[in-house]
Amino acid sequence: MVTVGRCRLPAAAAAPLVAVVFAFPMISNGTFNQASEVCEFAGGLALTEEWRYAPPETSPHDRLIGLLSSITRHPESGMYVVDLRGRSVLHLSPDGDFIRRIGRSGEGPGEFRSPTIVRATEQGFAVFDRLAGISFFDTTGSFQRIVRLQPFPSQARDFRILENGDLVVAGAVSSSDHAVHMYSPDGEYLGGMGQVRMDLEEPILRARYNNGYIAETGAGRLAYARPVPFAFLLFEDSEVTVTVTHTDILRDYVREVATPLEGGGWKFEWRHPSLSSFTRLPDGCFLAAVGRLPETVKGGLPEAEDFYTEFVFLSDQGSVLHRQTLSFYFRPAEAWREGGGRMHLLGTGRDKATGLDYPIQYLASPATPGGPAPLPTGGSGRSRRSRSARLTARTPTCSTWPGMPRG
Fold first, then answer.
1. Residue 399 falls within a domain, yes or no?
2. How far is 267 from 247, CA to CA, in rounded Å?
3. CATH number, position 357
4. Which of 39, 48, 199, 263 is at 20 to 30 A from 328, Cα to Cα?
């Protein structure tokens, strides 16, 4: 089922958003084309591994990643990786080499309690801590300031920073029915956009299944992807101008995986398809990555390493252009072009042998129809560069899709 609609924001929320969102377009690490239904990569991607960061377990402790939560790229200083378990950030070079570890567990300046999301800024990077706020650092990791958002979106999945310093956060806020929220540089609430799923009456379900992803459009607009059921929303000039729901990408499975417990509390099943990331490509279209499970593990006890990724290519209006199945798990975080017009994809890979995640970067080009099937990229235990194997689509079909893994 596909539904398309338009809706206006309440006047109270719309007023500040016109000035904030569209007078101050998003910071971007790349140059994006204007909106278009024609996308260079709409036929899929061929990926060549450039490097991965997977140091041996015998490496010094400060070089290991306990639990990779988020990754971003600064165009001059390299990559920043959030280690949720280590409550710190790893700084990697543009080639994926270790530079330093930043921060530690604590409640002081530059320390973290539960860091989950990292985003590049002009001066360096910013980290969202779901128990504290957003901490800003320069490129070397020196702490600059912390912004404490009020009201605080503790279940936030994503955030972005506007050129004027205002903040956009995706995730439920207890005092708001909106899915995307605007804050001033000092953390003052400015208003919201889009609506959370009101059919989920339980607060814990409303918070857990309304935390989607934000993608910048490069033209003063915001695109938002809701995970369950999958929906594409485009915000422009104080309106939700596009709403497209694709239940064939991710259907509404909330009641199947969330079970109330006797005496209170909930049990959540994590072994199901899920939206892993949502990224704007340099050609102006969007890439949604969906984590899926093979049919062979249904009814068994799949683990994290059993998941693979399906790429869904969407136009700037949310229509599905192509779907590409990988044989491995990859969660794209950022896409950009460099010299020669080549596109790079930075994101998170997963070692099939251990289920551990690691930072990885690919060189991406339009896929060749009928090309070879993608090869698994299992971890080698060390950082690698320039992998010659090309990773392409299993099926060259476009627009239509004859069948989907159930889930």
1. no
2. 24
3. 2.120.10.30
4. 39
User: Does residue 338 contact residue 319 with C-beta atoms inside 8 Å?
Assistant: no
Amino acid at 312: V
Q: Domain range for residue 336?
A: 2-391
CA distance 324 to 311: 5
Q: Which residues make Cβ contacts (< 8 Å) with residue 329, sequence separation at least 6?
A: 291, 305, 307, 308, 309, 349, 350
pLDDT along the chain (407 residues), means of 10: 36 33 34 54 93 95 96 97 98 98 96 97 96 97 96 89 88 85 94 86 81 80 93 85 95 90 87 91 94 67 78 95 94 91 95 90 85 43 40 31 28
> What's the gap between Cα 221 and its chain centre?
17
Residues linked to residue 260 through DSSP beta bridges, in sequence order = 266
**CA–CA separation, 92 vs 51, rounded Å?**
11
The whole-angstrom separation of Cα 324 and Cα 303 is 22
Q: How far is CA 96 from the centre of its chain?
A: 20
Quick one: pLDDT at residue 370? 53
d(CA 57, CA 353): 14
- The answer to whether position 401 is within a domain reads no
361 CB burial (10 A radius; 0-12, 13-18, 19+): buried
Instruction: Please name the residue that has the structure tokens 């006890």.
Output: 301
Q: Judge whether 402 lies within some domain.
A: no
Sheet holding 274-280, edge to edge: 274-280, 286-292, 308-314, 320-325
Q: DSSP characters for 293-355?
A: --GGGTTS---GGG-EEEEEEE-TTS-EEEEEE-SS-EEEEEEEE-GGG-EEEEEEEE-TTT-
